[in-house]
Write the structure tokens for this entry.
Amino acid sequence: MISIFTSRAVLFASLLAAIAAIGLGFPGWALFPLSLAMANSLVVLGLIGLIRTGGVSFGQALYFGGGAYIAGQTSRLLHSTDAFLAIGLGGATGIIVAAILGPFLTRFRGIFFAMLTLAISMVAHGLLLNAGWLGGSDGISVPTPTYLGFAPQGPWVIRSQFFLCGLLALVGAGGMAALFRSSLGLAALAVGQNEIRVEYLGGSMQRITWTVFVIAGGLSGMGGAAAALIMGHVDPEWMFWTKSGEFVLTAILSGSTSIVAVFASALFMEILHAFAADLFPTMWRLALGTILLLTIFLAPDGFGSVKLPRWFRKRGTSGSI
């Protein structure tokens, strides 16, 4: 037990050191998509948890956008630009909304669950379009964040945002890895494989799914708040169904077996947006569709199904991290 704890502590410290090196050594233009990728990966991590229960949510943009709007309103309502407060309130918003909607949504399975989550997200999108106090279709601006009183200037603005997103990504990845290994995570996986058997063994399919659903909502809210701080602006399109679709596509590309693949897929999507949209502004979705088809044919279970080199994985494991 001590050796396992030590190895995980060493891994966490190594990743922190890598984030620090990247944040200090990379130029700002490279840190921007990396930061967005880590913010979006929080949403995808929660979505992967839902996929393991057998459900796919096409409404994660609801919690993502909700967290983003809360981050934008923090300075206005609470007169604070603290990033940690905005992230915390964004995550709490996602948790509360998911906890309220969960008992209703988790009663359904398959396509009904997917379409209901999509419908509720679109209702919220329509309300935002007509909410003048939230900027309507123009959205609202988000002030440059501070960090417990520290106000970065110049190039340190994006560097500090990168460090924040890197810390959130590490904590989120570690938390979801622990969840997947826990009794709840194994029960969620069992629900996705055979929910009737879980009920026969005394488990509650709806309670298990609801718990994972709430966790996914909290992660999405935190990701939305982080993305709003990076972009400096949020509008109703953050709740549109295409935003949820992007998260689902990222989850499909990563697969549900590897946490590392989630971050790789999120970064891939950001790179695709940055380059394909610039070089082929009217055809970048064609490039995305082509990549998705290639992934389905070459790695049906996503990037996470690709075996890592033997020297990179522990002996006796499946190769997914």
